[in-house]
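Consider the tokenized backbone below.
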């Protein structure tokens, strides 16, 4: 299980890592969840840190895990308690995921180098 999670950290997609983490917990019934939590926490919250404090990012992660696994598995695996409701104001998870994607400045500056046809397609 650890090797699978390590492999996903290489692609730097925290949202995918979170989904995989929850899927593995629900299907494999691992015994050392706290060790996995401690090891992978920085990767699991990486994108949430762009717009939250560390504790806020952890709370968001815990809310996501709780909504995926449910309260029984949260208790079984002894996840930390959520310290505050960071709420998502009803925002769709997919929208939040897209908004959290980091776009390198090089990619943003490429917009100015589009030809007319590309620019027309981009502006649509």
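A designed sequence for it:
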């Amino acid at each position: 299980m650890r090797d699978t999670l390590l492999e996903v950290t290489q692609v730097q997609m925290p949202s995918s890592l979170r989904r995989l983490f929850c899927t593995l917990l629900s299907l494999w019934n691992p015994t050392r969840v706290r060790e996995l939590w401690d090891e992978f926490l920085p990767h699991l919250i990486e994108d949430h840190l762009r717009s939250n404090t560390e504790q806020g990012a952890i709370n968001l992660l815990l809310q996501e895990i709780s909504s995926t696994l449910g309260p029984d598995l949260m208790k079984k695996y002894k996840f930390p308690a959520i310290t505050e409701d960071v709420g998502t104001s009803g925002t769709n998870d997919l929208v939040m995921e897209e908004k959290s994607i980091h776009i390198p400045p090089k990619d943003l500056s490429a917009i100015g180098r589009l030809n007319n046809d590309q620019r027309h397609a981009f502006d649509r």
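Residues 64 and 93 are 9 Å apart (CA to CA).
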